[in-house]
């Protein structure tokens, strides 16, 4: 059950910056938002939203360590600060031409994510908590911007036995619920994740679910980079994949993988759906001599089928509407395949109901920071697996400004 133990409520909207760089590592999404209310009365207005590319060298380093490259402690510290600097610049730039913000919620850059070990898995520890590392330390962002910054949102949920992800479902619940309609809010970033929000009737809050559905664009991006020798980074609008044909026996084979059959709560990352996974897909595709377009179509089908398979397997009932967000919501071929697999269920984007599909995650971290300041928990135990609701984020006050 969601509870709100709020401190005194702000009389005026609070101006907050949300900063997020996701598993695609394609740049920093910055959202400047005005927020008021707390839960069912929560309202946000997006004042400005912008994506700031990482410097190429920094992006390469991040992708390399996400793929398992070894680095020294000194390099790790340097990378942490370089990311914090890039995030600070994003926070400063997004405020140009607007009244300044009083709070920053910075997700940082995930470079490693290990879900908690589940029963039966080998571990040498009596209790095995998950581990998730986001770089771009909040204390440096706070010093560089002069704005109180909340960061490290995932650690408190993990300490409570949770996955530390997905964290957005609680925000989705208050911004995107509907009085009569059960909805799935499907993010398609590097990784996909869903929030299932039943129609707002009795006990709807206690029935909300969420989990990571598996690959979003991560494998597709790797395929495009492979087939173009790095000249292109993604399949714009899904045009290339749309010129191919999905090879269903491979989709079935890939779907038989354990992750897709694990019941929620569950989370994943590039550790599973990254370079090694893609190389295995490529090897499988070579056996059947699939063309690059067919490989792209087949990987797109894996993303679509894994999403729909998880709804059919883990939801108490299918939603009446699916709202897409994240960069993959612009992949028209992927959207078309989802529509086909979902039969009569309409598939729209959160833009269609007034919430930016591109900046929803950045907006969510602004809301989570705002909740943290008000003493309101941000996690949803049904989505993360935590033992209880907890306050999310570490506060780095701007004591020197
Ligand atoms: N016009 C487009 N057509 C097709 N795909 C697109 C388009 N625009 C963005 N994308 C895809 O969206 C990806 C970026 O999505 P997004 O920024 O939501 O991911 P992320 O936030 O990094 O990931 P996550 O949500 O897993 O943390 C790109 O890597 C690309 O694959
Ligand atoms: C560890 C981590 O960064 N996980 C991300 C990732 O990107 C999508 C999916 O996997 C999601 O569960 C999570 O982010 C979103 C913002 C979340 O926590 O809701």
TrEMBL record:
Metal-binding as UniProt keyword: no
Keyword vocabulary terms for this entry: ATP-binding, Carbohydrate metabolism, Kinase, Nucleotide-binding, Transferase
Annotated EC: 2.7.1.170
InterPro entries from the UniProt entry: Anhydro_N_Ac-Mur_kinase, ATPase_NBD
Organism: Anabaena catenula FACHB-362
Protein name, as recorded: Anhydro-N-acetylmuramic acid kinase
Family of the protein in this entry: Belongs to the anhydro-N-acetylmuramic acid kinase family.
Function: Catalyzes the specific phosphorylation of 1,6-anhydro-N-acetylmuramic acid (anhMurNAc) with the simultaneous cleavage of the 1,6-anhydro ring, generating MurNAc-6-P. Is required for the utilization of anhMurNAc either imported from the medium or derived from its own cell wall murein, and thus plays a role in cell wall recycling.
Binding site for ATP: 22-29
UniProt key word Heme: no
């Amino acid at each position: 059950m969601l509870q709100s133990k709020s401190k005194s409520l702000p009389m005026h909207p609070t101006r907050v910056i949300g900063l997020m760089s996701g598993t695609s590592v394609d740049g920093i999404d910055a959202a400047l938002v005005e927020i008021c209310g707390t839960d069912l009365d929560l309202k946000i207005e997006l004042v400005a939203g912008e994506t700031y590319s990482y410097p190429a060298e920094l992006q390469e380093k991040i992708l390399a360590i996400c793929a398992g490259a070894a680095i020294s402690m000194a390099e790790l510290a340097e990378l942490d600060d370089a990311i914090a600097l890039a995030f600070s610049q994003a926070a400063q730039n997004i405020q140009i031409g607007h009244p300044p913000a009083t709070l920053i919620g910075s997700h940082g850059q995930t470079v490693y994510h290990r879900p908690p070990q589940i029963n039966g898995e080998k571990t040498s520890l009596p209790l095995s908590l998950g581990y998730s590392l986001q770089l771009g330390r909040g204390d440096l962002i706070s010093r560089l911007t002069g704005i109180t910054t909340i960061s490290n949102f995932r650690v408190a949920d993990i300490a409570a036995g949770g996955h530390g992800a997905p964290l957005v479902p609680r925000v989705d619940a208050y911004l995107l619920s509907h009085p009569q309609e059960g909805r799935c809010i499907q993010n398609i970033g590097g990784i996909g994740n869903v929030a299932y929000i039943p129609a707002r009737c009795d006990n709807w809050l206690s029935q909300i679910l969420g989990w990571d559905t598996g690959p979003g664009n991560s494998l597709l991006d790797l395929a495009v980079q492979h087939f173009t020798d790095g000249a292109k980074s993604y399949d714009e609008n899904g045009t290339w994949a749309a010129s191919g044909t999905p090879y269903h026996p491979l989709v079935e084979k890939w779907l038989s993988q354990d992750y897709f059959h694990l019941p929620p709560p569950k989370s994943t990352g590039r550790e599973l759906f990254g370079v090694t996974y893609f190389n295995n897909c490529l090897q499988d595709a070579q056996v059947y001599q699939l063309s690059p377009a067919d490989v792209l179509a087949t990987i797109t089908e894996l993303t679509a089928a894994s999403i729909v398979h998880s709804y059919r397997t883990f939801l108490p009932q299918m939603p009446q509407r699916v709202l897409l967000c994240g960069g993959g919501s612009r992949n028209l071929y992927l959207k078309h395949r989802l529509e086909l697999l979902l039969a009569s269920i309409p598939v729209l984007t959160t833009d269609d109901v007034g919430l930016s599909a591109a900046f929803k995650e950045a907006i969510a971290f602004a809301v989570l920071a705002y909740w943290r300041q008000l003493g309101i928990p941000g996690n949803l135990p049904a989505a993360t697996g935590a033992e209880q609701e907890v306050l999310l984020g570490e506060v780095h006050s701007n004591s020197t400004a």
